[in-house]
Design brief:
The complex is a heterodimer of chains A (139) and B (163).
Chain A (H helix, E strand, L loop, with lengths): L1 H17 L8 H15 L8 H9 L9 H4 L7 E2 L6 E2 L14 H16 L5 H11 L5
Antiparallel strand pairs in A: 1-2
Helix pairs in contact in A: 2-6, 3-6
Chain B lengths: L1 H10 L3 H10 L1 H4 L10 H7 L14 H8 L14 H14 L4 H4 L11 H8 L5 H4 L31
The chains are: A mainly alpha (139), B mainly alpha (163).
Chain lengths: 139, 163
């Protein structure tokens, strides 16, 4: 009897422990995060599009640079900083396991690079589309 | 060398030993073009992605303060940091900044390449074609020639000017 009353409590704590991580740690986690943020921001949200993500990556958005200016047209390749010439490690998760593994890094680089390329922050839809494409890029 | 050494040593006991000690220890190695980089946040945030971690010793503290206060517009790019990291790195740069006249002779420049010292070291012997080489591209790209720049080593031994 006593055990039976403990079981649900133990099960509940286990469920908490094994619940999806609150912090995104994999590209799939980030995809989910961007998708739900995009849905929350736009009632007419129709899903992420890897095709739109690729276009976004390669377009200059009215400024001088595109994402590809430093990351090159192939995000699985080693890039080169457009100003300093320093090597930029590949962006596609298939080619570089460190990408989309840390929320702080993802936030930092989207903030900086969206500001550099678009002169504004990127929307969750844009980030989601981009990542939807990046995860399809093979090494 | 031995003769001079022993003569100097006789005339100024201790001086020779002090010089030998200075050669063997940290700060004096900076004169041998090796600059210690002792802050992990500095190396991670200012030396991993866009350029090498430049030697803090090569600009005066006033320059680093100006740089740190304008990271959102950092030579045409947004290099902003979270407040905690920025404070840590700012404190490190303040403590490690150059104090010698050679780095502060021209006020507080924002680029190491604008110091008289840099121009002297790079200007006189190098043909202009070195800078226009696409493998070099910019004086900001230390690693193009100083192959161990990421470790703070700008010594002659690791210097390879690409053709």
């Amino acid at each position: 009897m006593r055990f039976r009353s403990i079981v649900p409590a133990v099960a509940a704590s286990l469920a908490l422990l094994t619940a999806p991580a609150l912090r995104a740690e994999t590209p799939a986690d980030f995809l989910k995060e961007f998708e739900s943020a995009a849905r929350a921001a736009d009632p007419g949200f129709k899903g992420l599009s890897s095709q739109r993500g690729e276009q976004f990556f390669k377009a200059t958005h009215g400024g001088e640079w595109s994402c590809a200016s430093c990351h090159t047209q192939n995000p699985a390749a080693t890039g080169k900083h457009a100003k300093t010439g320093k090597e930029v490690a590949p962006l596609a998760p298939a080619a570089n396991a460190e990408r989309f593994a840390s929320p702080a890094k993802v936030e930092k680089w989207f903030k900086r690079n969206c500001n550099d390329v678009l002169g504004r922050v990127c929307s969750p839809q844009e980030k989601g589309d981009l990542l939807a494409w990046l995860v399809t890029v093979k090494k | 060398m031995n003769m001079i050494g022993s003569r100097v040593n006789r005339a100024f006991p201790g001086l020779f030993a002090a010089a030998a000690l200075a050669l063997a220890t940290g700060p004096a190695r900076a004169d041998g073009h090796v600059y210690p980089l002792t802050s992990e946040p500095y190396k991670a945030e200012c030396g991993a992605s866009c350029h090498v971690a430049y030697p803090p010793q090569l600009l005066p503290a006033a320059s680093w303060r100006k740089l740190m206060s304008g990271l959102d517009k950092h030579f045409g790019t947004d290099a902003s940091l979270d407040a905690k990291t920025a404070r840590e790195i700012g404190d490190y740069l303040d403590a490690a900044a150059g104090t010698k006249k050679k780095v502060s002779a021209d006020g507080a420049p924002l680029r190491i390449s604008e110091t008289r010292w840099f121009r002297h070291e790079h200007g006189e012997e190098l043909p202009a074609s070195v800078w226009s080489n696409p493998k070099v591209k910019s004086p900001a790209n230390c690693e193009a020639c100083h192959t161990q720049a990421a470790q703070g080593d700008y010594g002659e031994r690791s210097l390879r000017v690409p053709r």
